[in-house]
From TrEMBL:
Gene3D superfamilies found in the cross-reference section: Dipeptide-binding Protein, Domain 1, Dipeptide-binding Protein, Domain 3, Periplasmic binding protein-like II
Pfam families linked: SBP_bac_5
Name of the protein this chain belongs to: ABC transporter substrate-binding protein
Occurrences of domain Solute-binding protein family (ranges): 75-451
Biological process according to GO: peptide transport
GO CC annotation terms, alphabetical: ATP-binding cassette (ABC) transporter complex; outer membrane-bounded periplasmic space
Molecular function via GO: peptide transmembrane transporter activity
SUPFAM superfamilies per record: Periplasmic binding protein-like II
InterPro entries given in the database record: Peptide/Ni-bd, SBP_5, SBP_5_dom
Amino acid sequence: MKLNRWLSAIFMACLVLLSGCEIDNQTIAQNSLVYCAEGSPASFNPQTDTSGTTIDAIANQLYDRLIRFNDDNSIAPALAKSWHLTRDGKMVTFYLRKDVIFHQTQYFTPTRNFSADDVVFSFERILNTKHPFHQVSGGKYPFFQNVQFSNIVEGIEKINDHTVRFKLREANSSFLANLATDYAVILSQEYGQQLLSQGRQEEIDSKPIGTGPFKLQSYQSGSLLRYYRHESYWHNEVKLNQLVFDITASDTGRLTKLLTNECDVIAYPIAPHKIKENPNLIVEEVTAFNIGYLGFNTQKAPFDDPLVRRAVAHAINKDAIITAIYGEQGEIAHSILPKSSWAHDSSVIPIEYNPEQAIALLQEAGYEDGLTFDIWAMPVQRSYNPNALTMAKLIQADLNQIGVKVDIVSYEWSTFLRRLGQGEHQSVLLGWSADHPDPDNFLTPLLSCNSAETGSNRAFWCDQEFDSLLKLALKTDNINQRKNLYLQAQAIFQRDLPLLPLAHSKRFQARHEQVKGKILNSFGGINFAEVSKL
């Protein structure tokens, strides 16, 4: 009731405002769009960062990939107009477009079109530890290291200027899907050579050059990101002259800016049912491939003990969390995989809310007098967790009932991610939005031994049998065999419980009615390439 009264007050107050304020002293150009985002990108290169704020802001605005996903999740041409897979699945040849032009900016002017050299450069940077750009930004390529890309790819060969071939060590059923993700972007080799000659290699990830629909104009960390249209974009005519990301961490702040016309589109709107009452606003939603979870750092006490992990799981009231945090926009997660996944295990027995059982498990683990630990709550909204701080407080109250004291910790987003990757936390409220619909894209990044080394496995859990099952599942295209292997892997997960699945959710955004075109996807980042503003 308080929330509804507060929202109504905002709506009424905004009706009397003549117009929104300018974002800064620069005039927003005609036919421009302002998107209110919840956080700043941590990098300007999706190869080096998997956070949702980076992918939304960067991946589809600045870059293209060799291939992409269609709306029906099938794989479609992009920078590669076609490709050929050998019968043994160990060689993939891509035939490239000839008319693709890189961005021209204040800091770079291309002298040639996209070619096979750019493909080789982009992936050799990831694969070759002696590549002059490999160690830039710390030598971390989380997505590719999670899927063990260097173990999959034996080599990349330039056949001619417009043909490139990937040689695989063995058949891999997710290889093409991985190349279609938001992380497999193509960089400019020519730009890289320019930076190398000037001793400024680090700028490849901070002053980006791609082939995407927009090019970077300016960036103010935590405040503003400004793009201009790429006039020579190969795929379609870009209708927006300018695209501005207004970084507004507060959900109420974003809603206010939407209502006062300071933003045309906002991320993760609160109370979408209330916004729908405004005839000039549209609320969009997609069913997302995601999971919100409480991750246990299995390398730190007390969560190095599976009994403690299970005790905490029994003490958390998921029903109350869904009601308070998600409402009708989420459902309880009993498994790491959403029900829409073909590998979902419907036979999983949910961990029931049972404080008495939680107390008994704590006593068995030697914590008769209770214990204290911290929960890290992310400071930004994501579709898989719209309000981590409130969720942390609910869990804190639940655990207090069984004699467990919880300290809630949070940092600025980039600091949060950095310290999380270093394993400083005991537990964390986080989540995952899939990059493609294959089950491997949930299980490997979140739970594999390799991803524990790269940091995206926030539980730092490593089980060799679990890992072996994932690897076997990638060696066959037989869907029944793959599903059986993934069911076995999920059973190991349920036994050890390195993280507690909490919710699967929909993703929402709100826009003014004059904004036309598709922005949201069921997985991956947002895309403004075909968006217009009337």
